[in-house]
Design a protein that fits this description.
There is one protein chain. The chain is an alpha/beta fold. The chain has a domain at about 15-70 and about 100-145: Ribosomal Protein L13p, Chain: A. It is about 30% helix and about 20% strand. The protein is built from 6 helices and 6 strands; from the N terminus they run H-E-H-E-H-E-E-H-H-H-E-E. The chain has helices spanning about 10-15, 30-40, 70-75, 90-100, 100-110, 120; strands spanning about 20, 55-60, 75-80, 85-90, 125, 140-145. The longest helix has 13 residues, at about 30-40. The termini are far apart.
Length: about 140
């Protein structure tokens, strides 16, 4: 019986790619699932759940993303400050007006595995409001949804 060979971390890092997703008129969930799949590495044949086998993702035009239905009015983002009575909440419309890149980041963060790799996977995600990004030297590939 042959054993499964996993690539070493430096071999995986050498094969890293960069992808650009244009969020203009795209639905938030569709963009988030595609980005999360690429970050985790499930699109590659060398995927392993305990390794960072994914690629880097750049999302541009974050301010032009769409939320379907009544999510802008009814969806609420909550967090706790760890102080007594410190439950804070903000509506999706208010967050979208102030920080639309945070809505995309939170959606993708919720789709990543809840383990020690999560923090390192999020560092591979770059979200920008405009259609320009400073990662042209990495020669990112445009990704169609």
């Amino acid at each position: 019986m042959s054993s499964t060979r996993f690539l070493a971390a430096d071999e995986l890092a050498a094969s890293d790619k960069w992808f650009v997703i244009d969020a203009t008129n795209q639905v938030l969930g569709r963009v988030a699932t595609k980005a999360a799949t690429i970050l985790v590495g499930k699109h590659t044949p060398q995927y392993a759940p305990f390794l960072i086998s994914g690629d880097h993702v750049i999302i541009i035009n974050a301010g032009k993303i769409k939320l379907t239905g009544q999510k802008l009015d009814k969806k609420v983002y909550r967090w706790h400050t760890l102080y007594p009575g410190g439950l804070k909440e903000v509506s999706a419309r208010k967050l979208f007006d102030n920080k639309p890149e945070k809505i995309i980041r939170e959606a993708i963060l919720g789709m990543l595995p809840k383990n020690k790799l999560r923090k390192r996977l999020v560092k591979r995600l770059k979200v920008y409001l405009a259609d320009q990004h400073p990662h042209t030297a990495q020669q990112p590939e445009a990704l169609k949804l």
